[in-house]
C-alpha cells in the first residue's frame, strides 16, 4: 500500500468525487523507483473491457493518470490501480456529485389557485442521492399531515413533494436539497428553488366583477354626458335667433300687407 498513492479527495474513505459532464481524472503515483506500468480496472474488470467506457477514456502512462474527459453518472464505481509485478494495488471509491433540478413542465406551474394539488418533482442525478426539502423555513425529510414526500421512478427517496389542497399559507419558496457521501465531504450540497404563488378561489371572480362594474360605471357616465349635451343643444336651438332672421321676418310681413291692399 505504500508503493501506490492515489489522488484521493478523502484518503480516510479512499474517496474521489467528480462532477457529471466534466473531466474525471484518477492518478496513482508509484513511489518505488523503476519503470513500472499501471493497470486500471473498474469494479474488478479491466477498463478496456468495460463497455460503458469504450472509446471514452485515455491513459497517460508517463503521468500515471486515467482520464475520462466527459464523465457520466454511470462512471461512478470502484476503480483499482495496480502494478501486478510488484503485487501492489489500491482501490478508489469514485462518486458522482449530486445535481438537482425541477422538471421543466413544473417551472410554469408556480401560480396556483387555492384548493388545487401541488406536485413538485426534484430530479436528482449522482451517486445515491438523498433529498431534503426546505419549505419556507422548515426542513422536511419525511411526510407530514399536510405535505407528502415520496420516491420517484428512479427510486430516489423524497424526490416527489405533493400537497393535495394548497392553501394561502403554502405561498412560499420550495427548495430541494441533494446530498450524498461526496457532498458530505465537500460540504457543498446541491440546491434548486422555486416560488409557488397561491391565489384565492374567488380571485378571478373578483377581477371579473370589478371589470363589469367599471364598464357599467363608464356606460352610465357616457349616458349622462350624452343626455346633458342633447338638452343643451335643444335649449340653444330654441333661443338662438340671429338679426338676419328678424329682418327677413319684418320684410315678409310688409310685402304681405302691400299685396292685400292692392
Structure described in brief:
Helix content is 25%, strand content 35%.
Q: Which tags fit this structure?
A:
Immunoglobulin-like; alpha+beta; five-stranded mixed sheet; 18 strands; about 25% helix; about 260 residues
Number of domains: 2
What is the level 1 CATH name of the largest domain?
A: Mainly Beta
Total beta strand runs: 18
The ordered H/E elements are EEEEEEEEEEHEEEEEEEHEHH
What do the pLDDT scores average to? 86
Cα-based radius of gyration, to the nearest Å: 42 Å
Spatial sequence of strands, sheet with the most strands: 2-9-8-4-5
Low-confidence stretches: none
CATH level-4 homologous superfamily of the largest domain:
Immunoglobulins
Topology (elements, then pairings):
Elements: E1 4-6, E2 15-18, E3 24-30, E4 39-42, E5 45-46, E6 57-60, E7 65-68, E8 77-83, E9 88-96, E10 99-102, H1 104-107, E11 111-113, E12 118-125, E13 130-135, E14 138-140, E15 148-150, E16 160-163, E17 172-179, H2 181-186, E18 190-199, H3 203-239, H4 243-261
Parallel strand pairs: 2-9, 11-18
Antiparallel strand pairs: 1-3, 3-7, 4-5, 4-8, 6-7, 8-9, 10-12, 12-16, 13-14, 13-17, 15-16, 17-18
Protein name: Ig-like domain-containing protein
Pfam family, one: Ig_3
Organism: Culex quinquefasciatus
Amino acid at each position: 500500500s505504500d508503493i501506490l498513492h492515489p489522488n484521493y479527495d478523502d484518503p480516510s474513505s479512499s474517496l474521489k468525487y467528480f462532477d457529471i459532464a466534466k473531466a474525471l481524472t484518477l492518478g496513482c503515483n508509484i513511489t518505488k523507483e523503476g519503470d513500472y506500468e499501471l493497470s486500471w480496472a473498474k469494479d474488478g474488470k479491466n477498463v478496456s473491457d468495460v463497455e460503458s467506457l469504450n472509446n471514452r477514456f485515455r491513459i497517460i502512462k508517463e503521468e500515471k493518470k486515467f482520464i475520462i474527459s466527459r464523465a457520466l453518472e454511470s462512471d461512478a464505481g470502484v476503480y483499482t490501480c495496480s502494478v501486478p509485478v510488484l503485487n501492489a494495488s489500491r482501490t478508489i471509491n469514485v462518486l458522482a456529485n449530486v445535481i438537482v433540478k425541477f422538471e421543466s413542465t413544473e417551472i410554469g406551474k408556480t401560480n396556483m389557485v387555492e384548493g388545487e394539488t401541488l406536485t413538485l418533482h426534484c430530479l436528482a442525478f449522482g451517486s445515491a442521492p438523498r433529498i431534503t426539502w426546505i419549505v419556507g423555513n422548515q426542513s422536511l425529510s419525511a411526510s407530514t399531515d399536510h405535505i407528502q414526500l415520496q420516491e420517484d421512478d428512479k427510486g430516489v427517496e423524497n424526490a416527489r413533494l405533493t400537497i393535495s389542497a394548497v392553501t394561502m399559507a403554502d405561498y412560499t419558496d420550495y427548495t430541494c436539497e441533494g446530498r450524498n457521501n461526496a457532498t458530505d465531504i465537500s460540504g457543498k450540497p446541491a440546491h434548486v428553488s422555486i416560488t409557488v404563488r397561491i391565489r384565492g378561489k374567488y380571485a378571478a371572480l373578483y377581477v371579473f366583477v370589478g371589470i363589469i362594474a367599471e364598464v357599467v360605471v363608464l356606460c352610465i357616465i357616457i349616458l349622462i354626458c350624452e343626455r346633458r349635451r342633447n338638452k343643451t343643444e335643444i335649449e340653444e336651438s330654441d333661443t338662438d335667433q340671429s338679426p338676419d332672421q328678424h329682418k327677413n321676418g319684418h320684410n315678409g310681413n310688409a310685402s304681405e300687407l302691400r299685396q292685400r291692399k292692392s
